[in-house]
Amino acid sequence: MRPKEMKRALLCKQLYSGVLKRLIIRVLNLVKPVIQILILFSLKRLYHVAGGTCLGLVARTVDDAGIPLVRSFVLKKYIKG
Question: How far is CA 67 from CA 7, 13, 58, in A?
Protein backbone atom coordinates (compact mmCIF):
# COMPACT_ATOMS: atom_id res chain seq x y z
CA MET A 1 0.00 0.00 0.00
CA ARG A 2 1.29 3.46 -0.85
CA PRO A 3 1.77 6.06 1.90
CA LYS A 4 -1.14 8.14 0.61
CA GLU A 5 -3.46 5.12 0.70
CA MET A 6 -2.21 4.15 4.16
CA LYS A 7 -2.93 7.65 5.44
CA ARG A 8 -6.45 7.54 3.96
CA ALA A 9 -7.06 4.09 5.46
CA LEU A 10 -5.92 5.28 8.89
CA LEU A 11 -8.23 8.31 8.72
CA CYS A 12 -11.17 6.06 7.78
CA LYS A 13 -10.36 3.74 10.66
CA GLN A 14 -10.22 6.64 13.13
CA LEU A 15 -13.50 8.07 11.84
CA TYR A 16 -15.21 4.67 12.05
CA SER A 17 -13.88 4.10 15.57
CA GLY A 18 -15.17 7.49 16.72
CA VAL A 19 -18.61 6.97 15.21
CA LEU A 20 -18.85 3.47 16.66
CA LYS A 21 -17.80 4.68 20.09
CA ARG A 22 -20.44 7.44 20.09
CA LEU A 23 -23.10 4.96 18.96
CA ILE A 24 -22.24 2.50 21.73
CA ILE A 25 -22.36 5.28 24.33
CA ARG A 26 -25.80 6.39 23.10
CA VAL A 27 -27.14 2.84 23.23
CA LEU A 28 -25.77 2.27 26.74
CA ASN A 29 -27.21 5.58 27.92
CA LEU A 30 -30.60 4.43 26.65
CA VAL A 31 -30.54 0.86 27.94
CA LYS A 32 -29.80 1.60 31.61
CA PRO A 33 -32.79 3.89 32.27
CA VAL A 34 -35.09 1.63 30.23
CA ILE A 35 -34.23 -1.37 32.40
CA GLN A 36 -34.63 0.69 35.59
CA ILE A 37 -38.03 1.95 34.48
CA LEU A 38 -39.22 -1.52 33.46
CA ILE A 39 -38.23 -2.96 36.83
CA LEU A 40 -39.75 -0.10 38.82
CA PHE A 41 -43.10 -0.04 37.06
CA SER A 42 -43.29 -3.83 36.75
CA LEU A 43 -43.01 -4.14 40.52
CA LYS A 44 -45.94 -1.73 40.83
CA ARG A 45 -47.80 -3.49 38.00
CA LEU A 46 -47.99 -0.29 35.96
CA TYR A 47 -47.09 -1.90 32.65
CA HIS A 48 -48.74 0.77 30.51
CA VAL A 49 -46.67 3.48 32.19
CA ALA A 50 -43.47 1.46 31.75
CA GLY A 51 -44.23 0.89 28.08
CA GLY A 52 -45.02 4.53 27.39
CA THR A 53 -41.94 5.78 29.21
CA CYS A 54 -39.63 3.33 27.45
CA LEU A 55 -41.16 4.22 24.12
CA GLY A 56 -40.52 7.89 24.86
CA LEU A 57 -36.86 7.21 25.67
CA VAL A 58 -36.41 5.20 22.49
CA ALA A 59 -38.14 7.90 20.43
CA ARG A 60 -35.84 10.54 21.88
CA THR A 61 -32.84 8.47 20.83
CA VAL A 62 -33.81 7.26 17.34
CA ASP A 63 -36.14 10.14 16.42
CA ASP A 64 -38.57 9.26 13.62
CA ALA A 65 -36.85 5.98 12.69
CA GLY A 66 -38.91 4.02 15.23
CA ILE A 67 -42.33 5.21 14.08
CA PRO A 68 -42.93 2.51 11.42
CA LEU A 69 -42.04 -0.25 13.88
CA VAL A 70 -44.31 1.05 16.62
CA ARG A 71 -47.13 1.79 14.21
CA SER A 72 -47.10 -1.72 12.74
CA PHE A 73 -47.01 -3.25 16.24
CA VAL A 74 -49.95 -1.16 17.43
CA LEU A 75 -51.95 -1.91 14.31
CA LYS A 76 -51.39 -5.67 14.65
CA LYS A 77 -51.95 -6.00 18.38
CA TYR A 78 -54.57 -3.46 19.27
CA ILE A 79 -56.51 -2.20 16.29
CA LYS A 80 -56.89 -5.31 14.14
CA GLY A 81 -57.39 -7.52 17.18
Answer: 40, 32, 10
